[in-house]
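Late entry, evening session. Most of the bench is empty. Finally got around to the prediction I had been postponing all week. Sequence below, unchanged from the version circulated by S.P.
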Amino acid sequence: MKTLKKNVHAVPVFEALGEDRRDMDTSFEDVYRNYHSVYSAALEYLSIQMKNGNVHFEATAFSEFVLFFRKMEMNSGWYLFNGYLKNKILK
C-alpha cells in the first residue's frame, strides 16, 4: 500500500487506453460510464467481502483506503479522458 500511495499519480497507462477508445470510435459517454463503473464495482466488491467477514478493516484503515482509491480514480480518469480527447475536435 505504501508503494501505491507514492505512485498514486503515476497512472499514464490510462492515457493510452483513452487513445485506444477514441481510435475505436467508442462514444465519450461509454468511456465515461464504463470507467466509473469499474471503480464502483471494486468498492462494492470490497464492501460485500467485509459484510461476509472475508476481509477485516479497522474503520480508520477502510476510510483511508477509500480516500486513496478515490484519488486514484480521479488521477487515472484525468489521463483516460485526456487521452480520449487528445487531438480531437469537440463538436
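Two things to note before I forget:
The two ends are 41 Å apart (CA to CA).
The chain has a mean pLDDT of 83.
Will write this up properly tomorrow.
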